[in-house]
């Protein structure tokens, strides 16, 4: 029994060349992300300068003929004026900072339940942070005093900003830990969304040589038995009987 031409065709396997990236394990983004995050957190903690914050408070007080509830509304309004150009231009002399930089070093907070305004100054020096907070709160109090007769509400200083003892920026161990966690999280996300790597084997069938067909004799070319041979065969059968 001869094999068909399809069975005689050898199968050739073609493999893609393995590069340095394909030789890595599939979970390589996770340790790479952890290492990069740790390096970034450590570098940020070592190279960045510490930041200090100091906060001063002012309170809105209604005068005798003014509704006490009006003090809460004016406290919200004066809180929005802390970072205005008029307030910062008045405070930049006492703060010792230009107005452009002073705008990025000051923030204000107000409470919906009490007529209190908090002004926070930020700087890489502890004493400068306190000076910024006190200068800006004084500028707001002076501005409110100019219109206190018309509004019936005035601001008074509640607390004075003090020089902070410790910076608010993260320390080196904390920054390193945060960077490591962030790098591990990003590496895990990359590991989840990246496509799965599979071995792509391309198989190609190469046709092999087919067997040569040898023509056989046809039925017309086969000689028929003669009559004499038929008779001899018949006689032989009769003798056997």
Quick rundown:
Residues about 225-240 have low confidence and may be disordered. This protein is of the alpha+beta class and about 240 residues long. It has nine helices and six strands.
Please describe what this structure looks like.
- There is one protein chain.
- The strands form 2 sheets. A 4-stranded antiparallel sheet has the order 3-4-2-5. Strands 1-6 form a two-stranded antiparallel ribbon.
- Strand 3 and strand 4 form a beta hairpin.
- The two termini are 42 Å apart.
- It has helices at 5-8, 29-47, 69-80, 85-95, 99-104, 126-146, 148-151, 172-193, 227-240, and strands at 11-15, 52-62, 106-110, 116-123, 153-159, 201-205.
- Helix content is 47%, strand content 17%.
- The chain is elongated and about 80 Å long.
- It contains 9 helices and 6 strands, in the order αβαβαααββααβαβα.
- The protein is an alpha+beta fold and 241 residues long.
- Helix 2 runs antiparallel to helix 8 (172-193) and helix 4 (85-95) crosses helix 6 (126-146).
Mean pLDDT: 75
Shape, principal axes of CA atoms: elongated
Low-confidence stretches: 227-241
Report the order of strands and helices: HEHEHHHEEHHEHEH
Topology (elements, then pairings):
Layout: H1 5-8, E1 11-15, H2 29-47, E2 52-62, H3 69-80, H4 85-95, H5 99-104, E3 106-110, E4 116-123, H6 126-146, H7 148-151, E5 153-159, H8 172-193, E6 201-205, H9 227-240
Antiparallel strand pairs: 1-6, 2-4, 2-5, 3-4
């Amino acid at each position: 029994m001869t094999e068909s031409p399809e069975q005689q065709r050898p199968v050739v396997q073609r493999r893609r060349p393995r590069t340095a990236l394909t030789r890595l394990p599939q979970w390589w983004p996770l340790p790479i992300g952890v290492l990069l995050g740790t390096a970034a957190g450590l570098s940020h903690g070592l190279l960045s300068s510490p930041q200090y914050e100091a906060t001063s408070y002012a309170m809105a007080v209604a005068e005798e003929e003014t509704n006490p509830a009006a003090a809460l509304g004016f406290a919200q309004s004066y809180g929005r004026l802390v970072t205005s150009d008029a307030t910062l231009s008045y405070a930049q002399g006492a703060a010792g900072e230009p107005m452009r930089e002073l705008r990025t070093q000051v923030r204000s907070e107000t409470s919906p339940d009490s007529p209190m305004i908090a002004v926070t100054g930020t700087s890489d020096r502890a004493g400068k942070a306190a000076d910024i907070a006190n200068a800006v709160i004084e500028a707001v109090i002076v501005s409110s005093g100019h219109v206190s007769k018309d509004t019936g509400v005035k601001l008074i200083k509640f607390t004075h900003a003090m020089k902070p003892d410790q910076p608010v920026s993260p320390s080196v161990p904390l920054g390193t830990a945060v960077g490591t966690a962030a790098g591990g999280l990003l590496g895990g996300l990359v590991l989840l969304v990246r496509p799965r790597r599979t071995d792509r084997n391309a198989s190609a069938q190469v046709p092999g040589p087919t067997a040569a067909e040898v023509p056989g004799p046809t039925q017309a070319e086969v000689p028929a038995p003669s009559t004499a041979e038929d008779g001899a065969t018949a006689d032989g059968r009769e003798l056997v009987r």
